Amino acid sequence: MSINNIRIVLVSCLFFACVALAQDVADLVKKGQKAMMEEDFKTALVIFSKVIELDPKNAQAYGSRGTCHSVSGKPEEALADFKKAIELNPKEATFYNDRANTYAGMNKLAEAIEDYTKAIDLDPRYVRAFVNRGISRADAEKHAEAIEDFNSALKLDPKDASAYYNRGLSYGLTNRYQEAIQDFSKALDLEPKEAIVYKDRGVVYHELKKYGEAIADYTRAIEITPNFAEAWFNRGLSHFELKKYPEAIRDYSKTIELDATLVQPYRSRAEAYMAIGKQKEAEGDLAKAKQLEKSN
């Protein structure tokens, strides 16, 4: 065999080996993505680590593994992976968004907002980045800016329930209660099974002293999520305002059953007991509340 023929054979072998490797990597990436869709992040992490071993310049694998680390409570490992992904592909908006999610989970809001902004700069139609930046701005108590972000998200996608919900939260926290109710209602039109939205709309109704409407919303939240302690407690508060003390006591008792470490349900139940003349029970609850405060 001539030298030229040998070279052709070697080049062909290398070509087919590279094709086979690329196919292996592509198959693994699909398996990893499927595991993530199924929320099997432990398996996905192993798969993407294998992809990186086979293809050390695979930015997608670093980004996906970073997400797996983040949701598994390993933010530092996640940040390292996102940094590598961005080094390999600095124009991919999702890497900045996902790194921002990790920063937000660490309460590093300035860093999160900076990364969400970078994602939006790269992809001005990135709805999720607008919503996420709005949430971080709201967490930083920058509600006017947060509302602008939610407005931008809704211009791009008028059916994004999370944008309505989070804008409703910012409206509520800035005492724009009617607008909050409108947004929560719109979110529920789009996603009628979200217990937390019913709960938060109930909070706004309570602030407006519309206790009947508040109770109806808390009740719906409880029907969807029976172990929703906050909804039980808040319904108790609304029952108390209507002087429905036995109902309030029932709701506070259920809250305590669900989470006996909370102080306020004992104090609120004590107040309801006193309202119906059960001094002994009230004193017992106040003593328990003091005990919990000391232990906390």
Proportion of residues in helical segments: over 70%
What is the assembly state of the chains in this entry? single chain
Biggest pleated-sheet summary: none
Low-confidence stretches: 5-21
Q: Identify the overall geometry.
A: elongated
User: Helix/strand/pairing class, anyone?
Assistant: mainly alpha
Protein described:
It is a single chain. The protein has 296 residues and is an all-alpha fold. The chain has a domain at 23-90: Tetratricopeptide repeat domain (Serine Threonine Protein Phosphatase 5, Tetratricopeptide repeat), CATH 1.25.40. 81% of the residues lie in helices and 0% in strands. The protein is built from 16 helices and no strands. It has helices at residues 3-37, 41-54, 59-71, 75-88, 93-105, 109-122, 127-139, 143-156, 161-173, 177-190, 195-207, 211-224, 229-241, 245-258, 264-275, 279-295. The longest helix has 35 residues, at 3-37. The radius of gyration is 26 Å and the shape is elongated. The chain starts with a helix and ends with a helix. Mean pLDDT is 92; it is low at 5-21.
Task: Summarize the model shown.
This protein has helices at residues 3-37, 41-54, 59-71, 75-88, 93-105, 109-122, 127-139, 143-156, 161-173, 177-190, 195-207, 211-224, 229-241, 245-258, 264-275, 279-295.
Keywords for this structure?
296 residues, mainly alpha, Serine Threonine Protein Phosphatase 5, Tetratricopeptide repeat, elongated
Itemize the secondary structure elements and their pairings.
Blueprint: H1 3-37, H2 41-54, H3 59-71, H4 75-88, H5 93-105, H6 109-122, H7 127-139, H8 143-156, H9 161-173, H10 177-190, H11 195-207, H12 211-224, H13 229-241, H14 245-258, H15 264-275, H16 279-295
Helix pairs in contact: 1-2, 2-3, 3-4, 3-5, 4-5, 5-6, 6-7, 7-8, 7-9, 8-9, 9-10, 10-11, 11-12, 11-13, 12-13, 13-14, 14-15, 15-16
